[in-house]
Automatic annotation (TrEMBL):
Residues 586-606, 633-645 have a biased composition (Basic and acidic residues). One of its GO terms (cellular component) is nucleus. It comes from Diplocarpon coronariae. This is tRNA (adenine(58)-N(1))-methyltransferase non-catalytic subunit TRM6. InterPro entries: TRM6. Belongs to the TRM6/GCD10 family. Residues 472-481 have a biased composition (Polar residues). The lineage of its organism: Eukaryota, Fungi, Dikarya, Ascomycota, Pezizomycotina. GO terms for biological process: tRNA methylation. Keywords: Nucleus, tRNA processing. Its main location: nucleus. Residues 466-513, 580-645 are annotated as: Disordered. Residues 489-500 have a biased composition (Pro residues). The keyword tRNA processing applies.
Length: 645
């Protein structure tokens, strides 16, 4: 993020009444703020963020106002005065009479909050105060005239309003500060310049725009979705810069707000500074001076799956990214031009039906290119780049091996996971947001423990048909998903028959999805509520905005074992007992007292076969090893002549 306001950048203006306004700082234009005034936008370009500006009085012959940076001491003058007064108290409230509640009373018996040493009234309580418009002596016409004059950036108007109020001496310290704050928010001509980030943009949409367009997402839910999906920043390795970071699959129907939140966590949301862009361009020209096309990024990428012909990421314009004009071939490209990959559901599920993917662009020779006009030559290169980009994105996406899945959509989560779960690697995190809880509860039931147990004990026949046929002597298989190259150079032929992959099982009425592919499923919610914290008046803010609560489904992708599972147990409990008895040498039931049976037991424990003699038991160890598929271990049988054994 830039520290200075750049030309044509989008900024947030925080007005005195705490409302937000987002506008673009275009050079050589006039910026107009309702109820505040107008000023040239060039006065903001090149200035730092987080500064508070005040509109000065218009000079004679000028239509617009100039700006003045308000110092921090002036902004916090009231707070500084209160701290100084608390540190150096000059007045005391130890005089006057007290009532039975301990509240000081004046000489006239009127209740006061603070009384001086000589019984003079310093501050009156507001119990007897009646707030009425009749206390203000200024008329609306006079107030409008003062507003049009706009002297002192509104401070003169506020001073006259307070001076002309008849009941100002009856207000308590709290009510007086509240009255001054209300007039300051209404008439003061100031604003603060802030950068556009995801929390500020989310708050602006929630307060000023229609929250239904972003599925009523809040900043805390955006943070939870990115955190549970393990979306993070990864710096490039010096030796292998293409292997740093991760790859996440995104289904976003919030106008690009979810993509912006994830890109901000990955460090690819904001455009590069001119110095960084120039250094990158010089390095690329040194390595590859023959062309200007930059290949798509292979790490720290977001693959956006959308339902329309073009993705709806209109909110990304506030971060200086426009998908219609952004191109990796530009001198200073936006990081999202190479790190954001977009494809439609048709290109993901059935790419052969998509004309952009299936229609190949023939390669022209140098003679044919030279014979074309400049306009047709540019059109040819544009179509060729578009076809190559779509083909590479579709091929890499269908290869899978993504590190996570983040969803915020109106679509059924079951239908989304049916096509996206096979694209995730083992250990990938899944995070799905929904304004209501019902779709997520139904999805959690699909991956419940009881349904998973029933699926393992009696899998459907359609699922068993997709399992590979292991031979009688084949080795166990641990995974049916082969490790695929995330960036293959050539796409597989579309007409080849689909491989027998159990992860792509379409489901059945009893099992809409394979319940063994996701574990640790949970549904949670989070909401940030502002509170008013005052002595005796602490409660949630009464002006908070309602709306959908919002819920989040989280899970972990696992790769179940395929094929035969060998598990052989060693039942050595009986053998340990025999060895302990042999070492002790104690006679057991059915044995003689002469100790001969102890030697027989010891030999039996060592695995020897002992014949039967007169008065001695017959101990025979039989090894009954079943085939590996049955998974049985060693059985020991001990038979004796003594019936008590």
């Amino acid at each position: 993020m830039h520290s200075l306001v750049q030309p044509n950048a989008w900024v947030v203006l925080r007005l005195p009444n705490e409302s937000l306004k987002i506008l673009q700082v275009a050079p050589n234009t006039i910026t107009s703020l309702p109820k505040i005034g107008t000023f040239p936008s060039n006065l903001l370009i090149g200035r730092p963020y987080y500064k508070t500006y005040e509109l000065l009085d218009r000079l004679p012959g000028h239509k617009d106002s100039s700006l003045r940076i308000v110092a921090a001491a002036e902004l916090h003058a009231d707070t500084i005065a209160e701290e100084n007064a608390a540190a150096n108290p000059s007045l005391s409230a130890n005089g006057g009479n007290d009532n039975e509640d301990g509240i000081p009373l004046g000489g006239d018996g009127v209740e006061y909050q603070l009384v001086g040493p000589d019984n003079e009234v310093i501050m009156r309580s507001n119990r007897e105060t009646i707030d009425s418009s009749a206390h203000q002596t200024l008329t609306m016409a006079e107030i409008e005239t003062l507003k049009r004059e706009g002297t002192g950036a509104g401070k003169d108007l506020i001073a006259k309003l307070m001076a002309s109020h008849l009941g100002i001496d009856q207000k308590t310290a709290f009510s007086l500060a509240k009255y001054k704050l209300l007039k300051t928010k209404k008439y003061l001509r100031r604003f603060t310049v802030l950068p556009v980030d995801v929390p500020t943009l989310t708050r602006w949409i929630a307060e000023e725009k229609d929250t239904g367009k972003i599925l009523e997402l809040r900043e805390e839910m955006l943070a939870l979705a990115g955190s549970w999906a393990n979306v993070h920043f990864s710096s490039a390795l010096p030796t292998q810069p293409d292997l740093a970071g991760g790859r996440w699959l995104v289904v976003d129907e919030t106008g690009g707000l979810l993509v912006a939140a994830l890109a901000e966590r990955m460090g690819i949301l904001y455009p590069l500074s001119p110095d960084d862009a120039m250094s990158i361009q010089e390095a690329e020209e040194t390595e590859t001076p023959q062309h200007n096309d930059r290949p798509l990024a292979t790490s720290s990428t977001l693959t956006l799956v959308h339902a329309n012909a073009q993705p709806n990421v209109s909110l990304l314009k506030y971060f200086s990214y426009d998908p219609t004009t952004a191109s990796p071939a530009t001198p200073t490209p936006h990081p999202l031009s190479t790190h954001l990959h977009t494809l439609s559901w048709l290109q993901l599920v059935s790419p052969s039906l998509d004309t952009t993917y299936s229609t190949a662009i023939p390669l022209l020779t140098s003679e044919e290119l030279s014979s074309l006009k400049s306009g047709k030559r540019g059109t040819y290169y544009r179509k060729l780049r578009r076809h190559t980009r779509v083909k590479n994105i579709v091929t890499s996406t269908r290869a899978g091996n993504f590190d996570g899945l983040v969803v915020a959509s109106h679509m059924d989560p079951v239908s989304i996971l049916r096509h996206t779960i096979p694209l995730l690697r083992g250990g990938a995190q899944v995070s799905i947001y929904s304004p209501t809880i019902e779709p997520l509860v139904a999805l959690a039931d699909v991956y419940s423990t009881s349904r998973r147990t029933a699926f393992i004990q009696a899998p459907p026949q359609s699922f068993l048909a997709l399992l590979p046929d292991p031979g009688p002597n084949s080795t166990p298989v641990t995974s049916s998903v082969p490790a695929a190259d995330p960036n293959p150079t050539t796409s597989p032929p579309l007409e080849q028959p689909p491989a027998r992959n159990p992860d792509t099982w379409p489901g059945s009425p009893d099992f809409p999805l394979n319940p063994t592919l996701l574990l640790s499923t949970s549904v949670q919610s989070c909401r940030l509520r502002p509170w008013q914290v005052l002595p005796g008046r602490t409660h949630p803010s009464m002006t908070g905005k309602g709306g959908a609560e919002g819920y989040l489904f989280t899970a972990t992708r696992v790769v179940p074992a395929r094929g035969r599972v060998e598990a052989r147990g060693k039942f050595v409990k009986r053998r340990v007992e025999l060895q302990g008895a042999a070492r002790a040498g104690a006679p057991r039931e059915g044995r003689g007292a002469d100790g001969k049976n102890g030697e027989a037991v010891k030999r039996a424990a060592d695995g020897d076969e002992i014949g039967s003699g007169d008065g001695e038991p017959t101990v025979k160890r039989q090894k009954n090893v079943s085939p590996p598929a049955l998974g049985k271990g060693i059985e020991e049988t001990i038979t004796g002549r003594d019936e008590r054994r």
